[in-house]
Amino acid sequence: MKTLLVASVFVLAGVLGLALGWSMLDLPATAVKLPVEVKAQLAVSGVAHPVTAVLLNFRGYDTLLEIAVLLLALLAILALPQATSSVERCPASANRMNPMLQTVARLLVPLMVLVAGYVLWAGAYRPGGAFQAGAVLAGAGVLLHLAGLLPPWTSPGRALRVGLAFGLLVFIAVAAAVMLQGTLLQYPPAWAGALILLIEAGLTVSLALVLAGLYLALTDTSVQQ
Amino acid sequence: MIFDLLLVTALLVSAVHALSTPDLFRAVVLFIVFGLLMALAWARLNAPDIALAEAAIGAALTGALLLDALGHLHQKRRERSP
Amino acid sequence: MSAALLYALAGVALFVIGVAALILQAHLLRKILAFNVMGSGVFLVLVGFGQRSGVPDPVPQAMVLTGIVVALAATALALALARRLLDLNGEMRLPEEEIVRDRLDV
User: Fold this and answer.
1) Residue C73 half-sphere exposure, CB side, CA atoms within 13 Å?
2) What is the pLDDT of residue A178?
3) Contact assignment for C56 to B11 by CB distance below 8 Å
4) Which ranges of A47-98 does DSSP label H, i.e. alpha helix?
5) What is the CATH number of the domain that holds C91?
6) Closest among C38, C47, C51, C41 to C1, alpha carbons compared
7) pLDDT of residue C103 exceeding 70
8) What pTM was computed for the model?
9) Which of C12, C32, C40 is best to mutate for the B interface (most B CBs within 10 A)?
10) Contact C72/A214, CB-based, under 8 Å?
11) Cβ within 8 Å, pair B49-A142
12) Residue-range definition of the domain harbouring residue C36
């Protein structure tokens, strides 16, 4: 019985794959050539890299909703009751006070902050931008926690909460301010570059805190300090 | 083109292996490998932004989260069976 | 067939592999892994299929960038819920699924 069910799942999955592949190959060519349109409007978008222009100018609303969704996920994780464990992880805490790990962390984290700053700045001209910079900073946070230099989150303090909401608030503030002289998120072309950089900076800080928080809020809180 | 074929084969093999191996730790490690191969695939598809994001987020941060959950699972099992 | 179309078909294969693993595996951690593999397959289809004529297209690339970050957040929330279930039940399996699997003897 078990092999029959497993085999039927495989067969159905194979049929689904073949149907999807055949329908994909059967589609006609697209009528609207999006790369051409993006390249035509790139000069007024404020940045020189097409993906950044699409992400923060042409489809900026999606990015606004995305940072809101990330904040929601972190709030949901913080709302869950913390795991109560009676046994302290002694071997793990001994690992954390390892001096070599701490030295490596202390050497690497300033470099990671520098890399994140460069990637954020270079996002206007080259592949890069707020998301990659925020991810590098979040990695720095995870590294600091693994080296024992950053405690896990039990309940975030005021500064941390402000930092978490900062990116979303900056984005909404810019969107509302721009709405006074046009529609939502329609930057005036002379200010577009500066506004995009402001939004990206706020997004990087918030994204780093949210992504690091997704990890720090989940780790065991019963570590012996 | 041959490199693309090899990369696609490596992607599919690592995904199947990650999802079917009985050891959970090996499954998570193979998933991290799958994430890094995906970063290579994004680079081949002329999408360097996605390659950066996939390497940092898809492979590194997701891998860290999964390994942490696995450690929690092992600790809970050790607690239950004294 | 261009290289991008090959990656799109690989994305379809990854999606289907993920669906099969999602159904067949009982452990929640493996279900989360299968879900991530499905997501990666969908991203490959989005970008590979949009670029099948060979020209890099920034719009699906931006969408996939958003998707990767949101998939991470969803994975983190799923892991938090799975750990809560582990604390309550003692193992990372859904109780309803255990009943069905016991009846079907799978």
Assistant:
1) 22
2) 87
3) no
4) 50-53, 60-79, 90-96
5) 1.10.287.3510
6) C51
7) yes
8) 0.91
9) C40
10) yes
11) no
12) 3-104
Which token pair is C16? Answer: 């289907």
Average pLDDT score, chain C: 90
Nearest-angstrom CA–CA distance, C71 and A112: 24
CA distance linking residue B24 with residue B19, whole number of Å: 9
Are residues A35 and C70, on separate chains, in Cβ contact within 8 Å?
no
Whether C67 contacts C39, CB under 8 Å: yes
What's the total number of domains in chain C?
1
Report residues of chain A scoring pLDDT below 70. Answer: 83-97, 220-225
pLDDT lower than 50: segments of chain B: none
Which pLDDT score is estimated for A96?
Answer: 58
C63-84 in b/e form (b: 16+ CB < 10 A) is bbbbbbbbbbbbbbbbbbebbe
Residue in the structure block whose two tokens are 């954390």: A96
SS3 B27: helix
Cβ-based neighbour number of residue A5 at 10 Å:
15
- Which member of B64, B76, B79 has the closest CB to residue A142? B64
- Joined together, the tokens standing for residue C77 give 């929330």
For chain B, the structural domain boundaries read 2-80
If one compares C89 and C16, the residue with the highest pLDDT of the two is: C16
CA distance B57 to chain A (A): 6
